[in-house]
Design brief:
Length: 272
């Protein structure tokens, strides 16, 4: 999908360009923002007099799944940072299972500012900007507000490790939720789209060990702006680099799930 396709999606909610007017950067160079240069990674800073390279280059950073796979360090600094998963649901993609997304998050001073997730086969564009709401193709998103686990549809993903000890923990976590009478548990193969289902009220909770910051960054803004909760599996605040998460439509539901889970250790993104 081309950048301009995202920008041209009609929406009552913010477009990608609007989402990009992150205040700190806009203040730094309003002209650059008005012209849309901010979204042209190769040219933006070379053509922007007020924010010239190399300062500009040093100012914006990228964390992306493929870059990490090639050995790039995943460190979230205070600089404006794009956090990108170019294909989320890779296994689905390989099998032509139609649940695949592109996920783009943006953080400034380690604070998630906006997120965009594109459901490629259903042409649904999910967006969220801190303080400005979350939308899907222009429709405002709201979480379900469910607090009762027996009425909850809970989503999770299996995680990359398949050794016997890890699988035992994964299955035991699912068993605990089923014993606690969760209405249903689903694995759809895309963390980002599972989290979008939570934001739209189609599911009530999500948990996972073994996902990465690029699976979480954009979705976290979208869920929070839809009224949901995103926390660490310990029940504490979310740590984007900790490779684990509980998200839910209410804090009550998030805590119920966090308390039921046994930890599966995947290390940290910023220590790999
Ligand atoms: N090493 C890995 N192997 C399989 N899935 C992974 C993974 N790391 C993250 N995941 C994510 O877990 C979910 C199901 O596998 C997907 O969202 C997938 O993202 P990915 O498709 O971008 O790898
Ligand atoms: Mg992914």
């Amino acid at each position: 999908m081309h950048r301009t396709d995202v920008c041209s999606v009609p929406a009552q909610g913010p477009t990608l360009s609007e989402l990009g007017t992150v205040q700190t950067c806009a203040e730094h160079c309003p002209e650059c923002f008005r012209s849309g240069l901010f979204f042209d990674p190769e040219n933006a800073f070379g053509r922007c007099k007020q924010w010239p390279a190399p300062q500009g280059r040093a100012c914006r950073r990228f964390i992306a799944e493929e870059a990490a796979a090639s050995g790039a360090k995943c460190v979230l600094t205070h600089n404006p940072t794009w956090i990108i998963d170019p294909i989320d649901g890779t296994c689905n993609f390989v099998h032509r299972f139609p649940t695949v997304a592109v996920s783009i998050g943006f953080a400034v001073r380690q604070e998630l500012e906006f997120g965009v997730i594109y459901h490629c086969t259903e042409e649904r564009l999910y967006t969220g900007r801190r303080g400005r709401g979350a939308f899907c193709n222009g429709q405002r998103l709201r979480v379900s507000g469910e607090t009762d686990l027996s009425k909850a549809l809970v989503l999770t993903e299996i995680g990359p490790k398949r050794d016997p000890a890890t699988l035992k923990l994964f299955l035991s976590n699912m068993e605990r939720l089923l014993h606690a009478k969760a209405h249903g548990v689903r694995v759809i193969g895309s963390s980002t789209l599972a989290l979008c289902h939570l934001a739209s009220g189609a599911a009530d909770a999500y948990y996972q060990f073994g996902l990465h910051c690029w699976d979480l960054a954009a979705a976290t803004v979208i869920i929070r702006e839809a009224g949901g909760i995103v926390i660490d599996t310990s029940g504490g605040p979310l740590d984007l680099m900790a490779c684990r998460v509980v998200a839910a439509s209410t804090r009550e539901m998030a805590m119920l799930i966090a308390q039921a889970l046994q930890t599966i250790n995947y290390g940290r993104d910023d220590e790999k």
